[in-house]
């Protein structure tokens, strides 16, 4: 009998819904029509009268074409993307409501399900109506700001919805990272990321949300959640003096995320690390973390998990930086005062990124202050830096301009290198950023950047190189569930050499590399367990491999221009962050990349089964402008997963592969300004890499301590290397000078980090190996008998210790210790005579190593007083780089004098280097 009654109740509910649809039909058409005008038109064509508040429809415009359509269907379409509901009363009144609905009857199961209904109908829970939502009348919550999110849908069976948004500083408009967001009484919480973004899965109805953060007033907000939606917290700065503040933001980020091998560096948190010449440097700080190294002191470029320097994608506001260094690699080309954070992916690389094999350095500049004029500056022994921020439209738009320059010649005189001590060098960089919040659904950001270095190592040569980029980003929110981001960027790197000697071979040499990218990315949050990212990207490479012209009328140098290269790299990508259950989270992505080498140009065809040289050249093919020369491409799998072994202990694993269609040409150990880039074409294949990693992550005492252990294995294909004695610059037939082979890398990374207390910092240890194999059936294309040999940057042991001790709020000390195994080199092991000439006989490539490297740096830091009302807040840093005076070798080279082979060692900083830097912020 009870089963029959339940079926009867469901049937009656269906009859009620059917009865409600029996409303008049009308034909109307609207095109971007004000909503009030549209309702007036419906009133004119029916007997209905609408009741509402005009403010609800003030800026709402509607579009739609309806022919013989029921009025309720018309209203459903017009209000679909709004928070408006409606209720039809009798046949002449329609009431509009914000967020919630009017109920003319309670659901039959509102006071509980009939006996045994759950047993008779296992799907009963999914059939239940939610019913009216009631807000509590707790005295503790009176006076709270109440925010209603979404629109109530009486037909929905969902119990939870997604709330996302940003936390912003109400005074400056800047995003607030690491802000704890807690739902009272429901054991739900999260924290904001580096851009101030957050996402929460909340139950329907009333939620009391508390926010807590360093330097931010605690807030409580009553959120009435009807559906998926977004809300931006506008929070005030805290002016209360505290004895100690424990930062709880991103408390378990290292354990909770599914992505392996990812590191977030915030510039403000590295200001105490003692670095060379007192310059705060986000990229140099990255080198103190496991898995990231450089080939040596003063080297530009970074080696990540056994990868080459050209395998790192370095992005500044979505634009590519090709040479991220100043001043022989001692400084990075990224201004620390304009930088907000850097997210480094060295294991699992999200599907939205492509074109590089080893890592992504995703660097984001901070947004300008939209509330008031502000700035920051520093004065050091080598560089000075200033950043100014000014509102353009108060609370909506602002401009930031930052510049940095050097007066560094004096420091070169003190270096323990005769060539460098007789050198001159200078650099500068400028960045401008405009950010504009047009409305709650649209945000525009534009960045322009330029840097230039000029130096002279000898009296007859002047070298220069520059980076330039422009990027434009537009973020648009289509709905509470869907957002889109459009990025346009252009980057250019170029270098030049001007030689003016005593002979008649003076010349002016130039090189340029340019790329333009379009990228459109969307994010869809359907609610529940999924979060989708998908989009398209396309990038046009234009490489001018070099030109040389005579310098002056007396020069005997002939003009030469190497033909331009062009290539188009495109991709589509999609990823899904899928929460399988409370313990298992999977981040799965797929990227399909496609590359086409484009004309106009020439391609040389060589004999099959023969080495590439001038003797095996068969013919030269000509290709017209934009004609496809060769294509490459394929799928790139990005899969990473996290499993909780305990609430603060997780295991993560990832596998991924990638293609890289652009290569560097260099026979130096480290990146130099004269390294050139080569696009894949008919004779040079793209690089490929496959990486698998497994790691364990543990937090102790509420994230006071972090511990991680991660291992990886990587295989690479088509790595570009060079033949002995290769001529790489200004060579039209470059494929005759290079080789392509396999790579292999593996390692283990250990990190222990203390985040709280007077003493904090981290200890990192990396054991890693990196090998190259250049094998061929032809002797001239085989290196080390075709067997694996260590790469130039293979350094098995790497230890970094960073420690900070805070004596008081104003005074602190820091230490930085680094130890690395010496890198491989090729030594001469004998000599022989041939045709009355003496020649040097060298060992197998990279068979020996230079001495191990170690260095200790110390600093003492003094902040100004913490008064709120003062023009500027100051910060002094007294540091000593290389306290032990260790004569670390930068390189080892050999010369022949009077028939003897002599070895020489070059060092950059062989003595302690003291520095005083003054920073102030206003």
TrEMBL record:
Q: Where in the cell is it found?
A: Cell outer membrane
Do you know which InterPro entries this protein is assigned to?
Answer: Beta-barrel_TonB_sf, CarboxyPept-like_regulatory, Plug_dom, Plug_dom_sf, TonB-dep_rcpt-like
**What's this protein's name?**
TonB-dependent receptor plug domain-containing protein
Identify the stretch annotated as signal peptide in this record.
1-19
Q: Is this entry keyworded 4Fe-4S?
A: no
Q: Which organism is it from?
A: Flagellimonas ochracea
Lineage, top-rank taxon, reads Bacteria
The membrane-topology field of this record reads: Multi-pass membrane protein
Q: Which UniProt keywords apply?
A: Cell outer membrane, Membrane, Receptor, Signal, Transmembrane, Transmembrane beta strand, Transport
**Family, per the entry?**
Belongs to the TonB-dependent receptor family.
The entry's cellular-component GO terms read: cell outer membrane
